[in-house]
Amino acid sequence: MPVLSTWMVRAALLSLGFGFALGAWMLTAKAIPFDPTYRRLLAPHIEVLLFGWLLQLAVGVALWILPRFEKPPKYGRIRLAWTGFFLLNTGIACVVIGSYVGGPSHPLALAGHVFELAAVLLLAIFLWPRVKPFMG
Amino acid sequence: MPRLSRMFIKAGMLYLVAAFTLSFWVVARAPLGLPGWLSAFQPVLAHLFVVGWITQLIIGIAWWMFPKITKDNPRGDVRFAWIIFALLNIGLLLRLAAEPLVTLYPDAPLGWALIASAICQLLAGWGVVILLWPRVKER
Ligand code: HEM
User: Which of A49, A121, A133, B76 shows the greatest Cβ crowding within 10 Å of its Cβ?
Assistant: First the structure.
């Protein structure tokens, strides 16, 4: 596993732990009304699990197992992917905090979406040439 | 492929079929004039896809293919991994049974089932983090 994959998969696992905790909190709050504002956690819950867990794990594993190049750099333009990794996690954090404090249109949440867009663009540009036949 | 991976993946496939079946009835409710209680399955339906299917598929494949820890202890504690499998599935099935009922009959004494479901799934999720963490390494 390349170093960046280890970072992405670990970040994905942490997102899983955090996102499940938000989900468990909301499910408990549906059972006993100890937190009437629990639905503010819904957008952060979805964000962390869909993008922090599922998307990030998929990209981290793709970076590792997709066909490599015969000539170095064998993984491709890895700096693009590192930038994508930082932007993705910054974006998720901004959306989580922004949507929690002020709803989905909070400026921080909007900025987070811009970071996420930049991240997925970079990650797609990075992965695109790796989608090829082995030895191709 | 280890037995536990096969269990995760096959359980995932069963949830996928169940999720598509249930989602047909939820979506067809209005046009076919089916009873309103079907919409109470909406939130848990989403989770049959994202927890029951895709998350279990991921765990099953990761348990099988992630780098081995050592030659003597390739995948980590198998018993711990089986407990995670049980907790995740008990938690999700409890939610499938209890959440629609709690939505439809808020006064029914079923809150304990939702809380138990939340605890089971939370422990399973954190268990997955602990289980897979040492397998995430360069090789
Ligand atoms: C991969 C994991 C997960 C993903 C991607 C995910 C995603 C979602 C999505 C998309 C919704 C909105 C559903 C809707 O409005 O119909 C939602 C709601 C919710 N989720 Fe999750 N979820 C995950 C895991 C969990 C877990 C493990 C729990 C509990 C332990 C949980 C508890 C909840 C609750 C309580 C709601 C609010 C339901 C309502 O509308 O009343 N989620 N989640």
Answer: A49
Q: Give the mutation candidate from B66, B129, B133 for the A interface (greatest A CB count, under 10 A).
A: B129
Q: How far is B2 from A35, CA to CA, in rounded Å?
A: 42
Task: Give this complex's ipTM.
Answer: 0.97
Burial of A67 (0-12, 13-18, 19+ CB in 10 A): middle
A23 and B102 within 8 Å at the Cβ level: the answer is no
Q: Are A16 and B125 inside 8 Å of each other by CB?
A: yes
Tell me the chain A residues in contact with residue B48 when contact means C-beta distances shorter than 8 Å.
none
* Spatial distance between the Cα atoms of B81 and B126, rounded to a whole number of angstroms: 12
Q: In chain B, where does DSSP find H-type helix?
A: 3-32, 42-47, 56-65, 78-104, 111-132
Q: How many CB atoms lie within 10 A of CB A37?
A: 8
Predicted TM-score (pTM) of this structure: 0.97
Closest ligand 1 atom to Cα of B121: 30
